[in-house]
Design a protein that fits this description.
The chain is an alpha+beta fold. Helices cover about 70% and strands about 15% of the residues. The chain is rod-shaped. The chain starts with a helix and ends with a helix.
Length: about 425
Amino acid sequence: MKLIRKELLFASFAVMFFVAVVPAQKLTLDEAVQTALKNNPSIKSAEHQIDYFKEIKKTGTDIGKLSATWMHGQYNSVYRDNNLTLLQNIPFPTTLFNQVQLGREQVFGAEQNLIVQKNNLVFEVRTVYYQLLYLGANKNLLLSQDSLYADFARASALRFKTGESNLLEKTTAETQLMEIQNLKRQNDADINIAQSRLQALLKSETPVDVAEVLAKRSLPTDLDSTLLQNNPTLKLARQEIRINQKFKQVERSRALPDLMVGGFVQSLTGVQSLSGQDVFFPRSHRFAGFQLGLAIPLWIRPHLARAKAASFQEAMTRNNAENYEVMLTGNFAQAERELEKNNATLNYFETSALNNAQLLLSQAKKAFNAGEISYVEFLQALKSSITIRSNYLQALNQYNQSILKIEFLLGKF
């Protein structure tokens, strides 16, 4: 039992060591997107759906099974004869045409669904990637804060020891340092969560990480709302209308009669009168003919009900498409306003706030070291500088995320 426990303990440590030493694969944004498009199961599922409907399309010309009937016996005279009858029911040509058209539209729908899945996946990957860039930049900021507060804590401890300050200053400095260290732990946890999400999107067997640094994302070349017509989900919704239109036409055409084409070969053993002369025909002699007919539905109500149900389905998809277009236009307008707001905030930080934060920090450190200001004033200046830099990173992240949302709505992937 002790041996088993030791082996299990060794195996656990081995697994932990292996996980710890496996380095994260650093990827650029483009590499992450391409990896996700290649590996993600939702994309593969959408590709299989295209293959499925391509095969279904081939069934549009299905004319059913050939009926072959063999008859043997005394159906004509005392002699035993035989009869082979072949009969094929063929759907009305309009029905076959509509079925082929329906199959084609279903293939187009599956192809459009693949584009939707790609657009959604790329948006998710970009969103998580930029979130990781922000968290990485925030980690560096917290590290610099940790260094500042550590210096402050050491200086306060020394001042307290020499009697130049009181216990309140020393305790305050240590408390601020512990708060920053707690924020670092929270930020590291957020990084791990985002990395796990990115790894899942990429379906990577090894951990992944970003290979870039946080920067301002470029605006799309055009932000015209008319380009919303290229939104993949809107195109898919409109394609669903066309699919249901063809489905309705198929159901209506099924109320038309089927065509019946056939023929027979049989023996008629016995004496037949030909030109006034009796001629005996043995069973080896064959008589042949053909058949033409119509298969008319006597109870048409089920066909009409299916056609009416298809009309309701078409109306439903049309309403859904119209509603989605309205929501899409509203979301795009909201995204534009968010972009304007975030751009204005970012400009404020870039043009003045960041410079002021740096100046405030440097002057406060000099003044505190020179004994010109108290520790309370120094902490206030330090917090103000740090808050400005932290808010700048948040503003930059929100600006980038708003651009990603606009690109997603425009279908730019």
